[in-house]
């Protein structure tokens, strides 16, 4: 059956749709053939309909020649499982202190249920997704995170011991390139393997940034549960340079999970990623609005 527009408003709707597609053309040209790393945060994946929309948008990117790589988090889901198993958990500067029992649960939740549900959603949307953790194909070689924190009482830098929290030492881009060439969509759980066979829990933003840098991505998109980086008056900051980020960090404008997020963006844009964007994963089609319109949403971070 064919349908033709029946009313003036219906015609306007069709015209608007056609205009939107035409508007997207220059952006498609800019991004085609390039890699776009999407960090899908645990907070952003709470709603079933939003998850379906996310999966469809990822497939759409692939369909028009952009290579999406999904790196997912799962902080709230790990938290819920730890609570069920009565394992206590605390965060320092947005990072979960991770002992041996915790790292086993973190790996189970991230590489298991969360990874597979994203893979399944993308496959149901018509794509071919492959789930990986940093252990698969030696994707991420990790080491124990070395971090210090200034102690105002003693005025010295104290070494933080976060247990099995890791940082990527090396990301192997070859396996991801192979998958891209075969039209597959990698979905990565932020788990890394150490040289002595130990398992590391790595912040998902950090993994996304390291993967984006290793792939020379055109964009690193961090989907989260806020509209972007907010200033002290809770207003959205739409653009930031690396210098601006340092200032926001030292004057305390950013805290908690926003700290590793912006550190990641800085690392990524200093290592060959064109730009990083922190945007609201609760907004349907947030990625498409960011990539295919000149309005942009969220906070865009560039080198300078
Ligand atoms: N200046 C800021 N602007 C926006 N969010 C901030 C800021 N400082 C701290 N945050 C916190 O960072 C959180 C996002 O980080 P996180 O909870 O780790 O998200 P995700 O689970 O998506 O990775 C926000 O929900 C907010 O509570
Ligand atoms: C070291 C560390 O904090 N790891 C995170 C890994 C998951 C994650 O980063 O999830 P979100 O992106 O949803 O926050 C954690 O254990 O929660």
Question: What's the number of structural domains?
Answer: 1
**H/I helix tally:** 9
Query: How much is the average pLDDT?
Result: 92
Structural class: alpha/beta
Give the proportion of residues in helices: 40-55%
**What is the 3D shape?**
globular
CATH topology: Carbamate kinase
Largest sheet: 8 strands, mixed
Low-confidence stretches: none
Question: Which homologous superfamily in CATH is the superfamily?
Answer: Acetylglutamate kinase-like
Order of helices and strands: HEHEHEEHEEEEEHEEEHEEHHEHE
- Can you identify the CATH class? Alpha Beta
In brief:
This protein has helices at residues 8-31, 48-63, 75-84, 100-124, 173-181, 204-215, 242-250, 258-270, 286-292; strands at 35-40, 67-72, 91-92, 95-96, 129-133, 140-144, 147-151, 156-160, 166-171, 185-189, 191-193, 199-201, 219-224, 239-241, 275-280, 299-302.
Architecture overview:
This protein has 304 residues and is an alpha/beta fold. It contains nine helices and 16 strands. Strands 5-10-2-1-13-15-16-14 form an eight-stranded mixed beta sheet, with helices on both faces. The termini are far apart. Adenosine-5'-diphosphate binds at residues 41-44, 73, 75, 94, 205, 224-226, 229-230, 253-258, 261. Belongs to the acetylglutamate kinase family. ArgB subfamily. Keywords: Amino-acid biosynthesis, Arginine biosynthesis, ATP-binding, Cytoplasm, Kinase, Nucleotide-binding, Transferase. One of its GO terms (cellular component) is cytoplasm.
Helix and strand arrangement:
Elements: H1 8-31, E1 35-40, H2 48-63, E2 67-72, H3 75-84, E3 91-92, E4 95-96, H4 100-124, E5 129-133, E6 140-144, E7 147-151, E8 156-160, E9 166-171, H5 173-181, E10 185-189, E11 191-193, E12 199-201, H6 204-215, E13 219-224, E14 239-241, H7 242-250, H8 258-270, E15 275-280, H9 286-292, E16 299-302
Parallel strand pairs: 1-2, 1-13, 2-10, 5-10, 13-15, 14-16
Antiparallel strand pairs: 3-4, 6-9, 7-8, 11-12, 15-16
Helix pairs in contact: 2-4, 3-4, 6-8
């Amino acid at each position: 059956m064919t349908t033709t527009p029946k009313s003036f408003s219906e015609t306007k709707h069709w015209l608007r749709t056609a205009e939107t597609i035409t508007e997207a053309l220059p952006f498609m040209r800019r991004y085609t053939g390039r890699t776009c790393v999407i960090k899908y945060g645990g907070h952003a994946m709470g709603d079933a309909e939003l998850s379906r929309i996310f999966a469809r948008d990822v497939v759409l990117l692939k369909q028009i020649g952009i290579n999406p790589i999904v790196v997912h988090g799962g902080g709230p889901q790990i938290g819920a499982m730890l609570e069920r198993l009565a394992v206590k958990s605390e965060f320092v500067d947005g990072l979960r202190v991770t002992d041996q029992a915790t790292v086993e649960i973190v790996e189970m939740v991230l590489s298991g249920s969360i990874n597979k549900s994203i893979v399944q959603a993308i496959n149901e949307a018509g794509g071919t997704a492959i789930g990986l953790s940093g252990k698969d194909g030696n994707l991420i070689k990790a080491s124990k995170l070395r971090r210090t924190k200034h102690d105002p009482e003693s005025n010295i830098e104290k070494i933080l011991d976060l247990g099995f929290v890791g940082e990527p030492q090396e990301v192997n881009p070859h396996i991801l390139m192979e998958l891209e060439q075969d039209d597959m969509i990698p979905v990565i759980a932020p788990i890394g393997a150490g040289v002595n066979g130990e398992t590391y829990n790595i912040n998902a933003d950090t993994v996304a940034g390291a993967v984006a840098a290793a792939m020379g991505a055109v964009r690193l998109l961090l989907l989260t549960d806020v509209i972007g980086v907010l200033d002290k008056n809770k207003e959205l900051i739409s653009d930031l340079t690396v210098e601006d980020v340092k200032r926001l960090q030292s004057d305390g404008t950013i805290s908690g999970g926003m700290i590793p997020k912006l550190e990641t963006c800085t690392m990524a844009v200093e290592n060959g990623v064109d730009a990083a964007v922190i945007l609201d994963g609760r907004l349907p089609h947030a990625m498409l609005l960011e990539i295919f319109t000149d309005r942009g949403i969220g906070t865009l971070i560039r080198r300078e």
